Amino acid sequence: MKKVVMPGNETVAHAAIAAGCRFYAGYPITPSSELAAEMSKLLPRVGGKFIQMEDEIASMAAAIGASVAGMKSMTATSGPGFSLKQEHIGLACMMEVPVVIVNVMRGGPSTGLPTHPAQGDVMQARWGTHGDHPIIVLAPAFPTEIYMETIRAFNLAERYRNPVILLLDEILAHTYEVVEVPEEDEITLEERKLPPSGLDRLDFYTYERHEGDPPLLPNFFQGYNFHFESLAHDEMGFPTTDPEKVAYLSHLREAKIEKHKEKIWKNESYLVEDAELVVFAYGSVARAAKEAIDRLRAEGEKVGLFRPITLWPFPDKPLKRAVGKKKVLVAEMNLGQMVYEVERVLRRDVATLLKADGTPISPVEFTEKLREEL
Amino acid sequence: MKEITHYELRFSAIGGQGIITAGAMLAEAVVQYKGLYAIHSPRYTAQVRGGPTKVDVIVDKNPIYFPKTTSVDYYLSTSEKSFRTYFQDIKEGAIIVLDSNLVEEFNDPKYRIYRIPLIETAAKEIGNVVTVSTLSLAVTAKLTGLLTREELEDFIPKRVPRGYEEINLKAVRLGYTLV
Questions:
Q1: Which of A5, A179, A279 to mutate to test the interface with B (most CBs of B within 10 A)?
Q2: Which of A149, A369, B81, B118 gives a 20 to 30 Å CA spacing to B144?
């Protein structure tokens, strides 16, 4: 392990390289631009390819293209660019293509506040593209965690053959912090499973599999007779409107994530056990919460934090287990988004601390609000 | 040096002066030599060269949760406009270092104020204005006790561009004698 001082954007780039990412297509946008800049430096050194496309839609398409050819690939953007990428995120979900999308959240809607933090895209990350689709969304909060979660994003994308979205915000992306960079032998990398050798390459049912498994898609240019299709398709990837076949694959796409939620979930419970009041916060907001919790604990107040690192699939069981009947305060840098999920899961109203003015929620604001709610 | 538990610093300037670099170097050096945690967050305006910029540095014994300054212990500035723009959350008793040629007279008994011709010294006495980053870092190290002169003399040659080692070492030595 070595300690390096770098901002979140660069941390993601270095971790992506360590995870085996060898292709990046992007269109720079504040506050994610340094990520592209760093990838443009790092990729050529490891024999990878960097390309700046004409816009966000094209860069999402290029990232998907590289992935179907067998590369681990990534793109990064922020708010307005994330909106543009949605169309092709849906394509990657439909075709079951592994790809990592980084969204550094800034104030919105529209061009909003380019240089200020927000958490307004957490629902868009889940439901931004149209139609029912599976998605994994990770929201790290600390520098070393950003590194490790980037690697996990690639691993999950490969394992489940699905897009994985990594959410940062302007604060995490731009603050230079100490990252404990692990050695190569301290990280585990996953590679996509390929079809077993000896299969009939001309009569191959690409999307057929057991419920809960990802499809065993071959990479392009390997001689297999198969098809990538954005329309609803059958087991060979050819378009179909047959309700039975449509339902079959849409069920399998959901099931490959749904059945493995327990393995995808990751969260931190901080001083929750004896707490009377539990804060639900994620990303950089959780850091201010932790500082406030430490201050209040020093005064003997029983407060704790539940911090989801996996935002989607939503950690319903872990949240219920951690919180039980305790009082809950949801804090986020938006006008209330994840709070709806929390209330749905707990089946009751909870308190909120919401802010969407381009400035972070400070530990002082947290302390005051928590005192009010205790 | 007294034990550091938590210390907040701010450097403000005009974009291009090299003050952001001083903050970055300080954070890297305390991590390397003191085993402390440090963060720095630069802020630029849209006008990158010639606009007001600042960098906030937080040094802590423990991992830093909230990554923004709330109570600044040390503030260095080389521009009147930037000094005023970013004069927020400065703690009572804070050390304030101002470029004596570029920041107007500022007196307030609440602070410990030093006036040093940083940029002029870098340009004339050291011989290259780019050394103002190292000079400011050395002044800061001396005033705060965050780094020793020996540590800086070890760190600086490895950190600055090749060919600029000697001139920057000169800046370290001068920085320690200016205050």
A1: A5
A2: B81
Residue A156 sits in the same domain as residue A303: no
ipTM value: 0.89
B27 inside 8 A of chain A by CB: yes
pLDDT of amino acid B16: 82
Tokens of A76: 């990064």
A277 and A175 housed in the same domain: no
User: Closest-CA residue in chain B for A285?
Assistant: B66
Instruction: Among A146, A171, A186, identify where a domain stops.
Output: A186
pLDDT surpassing 90 at residue B2? no
- Which residues of chain B are within 8 Å of residue A363 when distances are taken between CB atoms? 65-66, 70
Contact A325, A300 (CB under 8 A): no
Q: Given an 8 Å threshold on Cβ–Cβ distance, is A288 in contact with B66?
A: yes
Q: How confident is the model at residue B46 (pLDDT cuts 50, 70, 90)?
A: low
At residue B43, does pLDDT exceed 70? yes
Domain final position from A186, A209, A234: A186
Kindly state whether residues A275 and A148 are assigned to the same domain: no
At B157, give phi and psi (nearest 5°). -60, -30
Q: Is A260 on the interface with B (CB under 8 A)?
A: no
Strand partners, A23: A49, A73
Q: Is residue A150 part of a domain?
A: yes
Please list the rounded mean pLDDT of every run of 10 residues in chain A (374 residues).
95 98 97 97 98 98 97 98 98 98 97 94 98 98 98 98 98 96 97 86 85 92 86 94 97 97 98 98 98 97 98 98 97 98 98 96 96 96
Asked if the C-beta of B63 comes within 8 angstroms of chain A's C-beta atoms, the answer is yes
Chain B CB within 8 Å of residue A287 CB: yes
The model's pTM: 0.94
Contact flag B68-A360 (C-beta cutoff 8 Å): yes
Cis-peptide into A109, omega within 30 deg: yes
Domain holding A336, by residue range, is: 268-373
The closest CB to that of B39, out of A177, A291, A363, belongs to A177
| CA separation for the pair B33, B36 (Å, rounded) | 8
- Both A34 and A175 in one domain: the answer is yes
**B6 close to A (CB below 8 A):** no
Question: Could you give the 3-state DSSP secondary structure of residue A150?
Answer: helix
Which of A178, A270, A290, A364 is the best mutation test for B, with the most CBs of B within 10 A? A178
pLDDT in tens, B88-133: 999 999 999 999 999 999 999 999 999 999 999 999 999 999 999 9
- Same domain for A18 and A136, yes or no, is yes
Cβ A264 vs Cβ A313: under 8 Å: yes
Q: CB neighbours of A120 closer than 8 A, spacing ≥ 6?
A: A79, A105, A107, A108, A109, A333, A334, A335, A337, A356
Number of domains within chain A: 2
- Is residue B163 within 8 angstroms of chain A, CB to CB? no
Average pLDDT taken over every residue of chain B: 93
Verify that A145 and A273 share a domain, yes or no: no
Same domain as A292, residue A163: no
| Domains contained in chain B, CATH given | 6-178 (3.40.920.10)
Same domain, A182 and A274: no
* Amino acid identity for residue A144 in this structure: T
Statement: residue B166 has pLDDT above 70? yes
Q: Examine the pLDDT at B1 and tell me if it is beyond 60.
A: no
Question: What is the average per-residue pLDDT within B1-6?
Answer: 76
Would you call B65 an interface residue with chain A, using a CB distance cutoff of 8 Å?
Answer: yes
